[in-house]
Amino acid sequence: xxxxxxxxxxxxxxxxxxxxxxxxxxxxxxxxxxxxxxxxxxxxxxxxxxxxxxxxxxxxxxxxxxxxxxxxxxxxxxxxxxxxxxxxxxxxxxxxxxxxxxxxxxxxxxxxxxxxxxxxxxxxxxxxxxxxxxxxxxxxxxxxxxxxxxxxxxxxxxxxxxxxxxxxxxxxxxxxxxxxxxxxxxxxxxxxxxxxxxxxxxxxxxxxxxxxxxxxxxxxxxxxxxxxxxxxxxxxxxxxxxxxxxxxxxxxxxxxxxxxxxxxxxxxxxxxxxxxxxx
Amino acid sequence: xxxxxxxxxxxxxxxxxxxxxxxxxxxxxxxxxxxxxxxxxxxxxxxxxxxxxxxxxxxxxxxxxxxxxxxxxxxxxxxxxxxxxxxxxxxxxxxxxxxxxxxxxxxxxxxxxxxxxxxxxxxxxxxxxxxxxxxxxxxxxxxxxxxxxxxxxxxxxxxxxxxxxxxxxxxxxxxxxxxxxxxxxxxxxxxxxxxxxxxxxxxxxxx
Amino acid sequence: xxxxxxxxxxxxxxxxxxxxxxxxxxxxxxxxxxxxxxxxxxxxxxxxxxxxxxxxxxxxxxxxxxxxxxxxxxxxxxxxxxxxxxxxxxxxxxxxxxxxxxxxxxxxxxxxxxxxxxxxxxxxxxxxxxxxxxxxxxxxxxxxxxxxxxxxxxxxxxxxxxxxxxxxxxxxxxxxxxxxxxxxxxxxxxxxxxxxxxxxxxxxxxxxxxxxxxxxxxxxxxxxxxxxxxxxxxxxxxxxxxxxxxxxxxxxxxxxxxxxxxxxxxxxxxxxxxxxxxxxxxxxxxxxxxxxxxxxxxxxxxxxxxxxxxxxxxxxxxxxxxxxxxxxxxxxxxxxxxxxxxxxxxxxxxxxxxxxxxxxxxxxxxxxxxxxxxxxxxxxxxxxxxxxxxxxxxxxxxxxxxxxxxxxxxxxx
Lengths: 279, 207, 413
Prior knowledge:
- The complex is a heterotrimer.
- By secondary structure, chain A is an alpha/beta fold.
- Chain A folds into two domains: 3-31 and 249-278; 41-241, 3-Layer(aba) Sandwich (Rossmann fold), CATH 3.40.50.10160.
- Chain A has helices at residues 3-10, 14-30, 41-52, 70-86, 101-115, 134-142, 144-147, 185-193, 209-217, 227-238, 243-278; strands at 58-64, 90-95, 125-129, 174-179, 200-204, 223-226.
- Chain B is mainly α.
- Chain B has two domains: 1-89, no CATH class; 129-207, no CATH class.
- Chain B is 80% helix and 0% strand.
- Chain B contains seven helices and no strands.
- Chain C folds into three domains: 8-15 and 24-152, Immunoglobulins (Immunoglobulin-like); 161-187 and 375-409, no CATH class; 196-370, 3-Layer(aba) Sandwich (Rossmann fold), CATH 3.40.50.
- Chain C has eleven helices and 15 strands.
- Chain C has helices at residues 2-20, 164-185, 196-211, 227-245, 258-273, 292-306, 320-330, 345-351, 359-369, 372-400, 405-409, and strands at residues 28-31, 37-43, 51-57, 66-74, 82-88, 93-97, 110-125, 135-145, 149-152, 215-218, 250-254, 285-287, 310-314, 334-339, 354-357.
- In chain C, strand 10, helix 4 (227-245) and strand 11 (250-254) form a beta-alpha-beta unit.
- Chain C is elongated.
- Chains A and B meet through helix 2, helix 4, helix 5, helix 6 and helix 9 of A and helix 2, helix 4, helix 5 and helix 7 of B.
């Protein structure tokens, strides 16, 4: 191959890479493959932990992500709520991300109210947003009522039956955090699980998981869902195929495209080096 | 005095917040809770400050027809379009703000930006994973193994591939992560201590 | 006839017992056989007087299958008793704290009793046929109460002994900082390894000077209370000083409103250090948006429109890191990144010319300014790290011999 062609290929215009990636992730929209991932231990432990909670357990759910990470974390949030509803648990939902409230409200209503027909205030409650990041996490350890005096709709927590007797983390059987970054799982480990006795389960964007896996190994996280793959595994365990399982086809194709480009880049690099060695 | 008083305040509150971590007595704990509530209020107030800042900077540029003033005008209009209906029509499900502005405008825009990461990752991988040295070869090989192992058909490629990926993530990756994490945490503690002791003062501005 | 009357009286008696023990939802009967014994109530240590520890001995009598235990508390021995906690049948101890309309407070008297809940089978009249004396058997819950124990007073502790390990580590670190700062001030030369990224700062500003293009400095996407942001502000002053020395503009896009004043002051200080306060341009300190991707698109816009030649990404970054650094790469700028967010390091490493990893990033501000107090603190960090490594190695060796002292000592509660 001509040296100039190889050089061109080595510095391939990145728009070709973009085009290949776009085609790869879009193709499964038209040709469904239906791939389902194998369950990994962190996901199984997440699932088993919720299964093992006594029915009617009060669970604090902190869904901390924004519209940007909606595609990756919404399926996780929905599956968690479905699992809690299936087992008759009672989620108390909060968010610490300022752009999340409307997003989370939709999921809570979609699952708890519309799909399962549960009673707001008795079976589930949505407290909405509290700005203040780590300070809010620590403040909830002292008094959740003082931190969230009203719910998302402005109802005082004293008037919400599910909040009767809730003082702090001690009245919850588990804390589930779906996290896209800061504040999220890392801060809950650092500021909550090390101070207050509440088991933490986490579902996080895939990029954060290499960091959080250290917390999972040390037992500070009782279960860990990794991005869209973790959500798909969880959906498969629940037997409720959703958006995450659909996304698996696109993700698989995307991975193949990246691998193909890595191989292509190296083949070109190899020939170019050989050409250079020949002089 | 302009610097001494803030440093003194930082020292008193910083030391107090460290000490309260070890003292569970209500006499100390109640004050700590009060301080934390102050922090929550101050952080929440940053949104007011942010809004004022947006209007001040962009409004000024629009007023004096500065560079890119048209874009700034769009920004100011968009700001009021989001704030005014939100304040008067509410932000709950079914409201105009929620359905039209948040769901149909903001979510697609933010999702697009996030999705563009996939394209950037692909182009960065194409450029970076060249086997120029043996270390780069290990890096490229590991990347390929992890990517293959993370897809649903990984066990069809090789039945032990998911286990290999688990090992890569749980042993070499976790070890390196922990090493960096411990170092970074110590650095963060040291910086925190420097702030509390007044060694680090750059955040207070000019001398 | 006698048999019929006798059967009826037994049924009435059983009914009355059942009604007596009735609760809101489940019909229960009272018993004594399964009552827990040796109930002990103590103050829960190391807390603010907010909890009591309760332990008991389950019944030794045979024939009872305990379903669960209920813990009831009252402020006087006469009651009224309130349900405080429920634990499973395998447990023989529990912690009682505030909740369900009841608050455990320090120095208040509390009377406690433990109730064992098991099930029993009762004969009840078959209500479907009122003329008949037939009975059917129903399962009912049976409550067996222990004796009331108390009063017990929760005590507020002045020190949480569970956190002694952290306290000692904090004190050790503090002492190390003090000693090393003193040594540095006394003129002792402290050795540090060379960090390539630090030399690269000069190189990057040099490149921007050659091209006559501005420097872009992004101090992360977090607020001033974030330690990484504080470290970044120190570096911002140094970078601004160098930029002012070479008379090139420095643009600082910001993600948080509080950061505007801080960044303005830091850059002004830098320009003053370089003796060029007149060259400071306030419009170059730009608050973009709190929203992550609005900020990101704003910054990439600056890169492409204003053709910035040297990019510094120093601070706490998240998903925006790859977008910023990739756009920066394609624009041809020299890029230096530094963060303690380990999950973003791979992206910076592939797209930037130099990356300060984890603690290197924190060390940079001390090494750039050569401030003796900061250098002393940095050295103390090194010693502390060495101490942790020694502890980890010692723990490994001890674990090999089955001694778990170190592991349990480092456990955080």
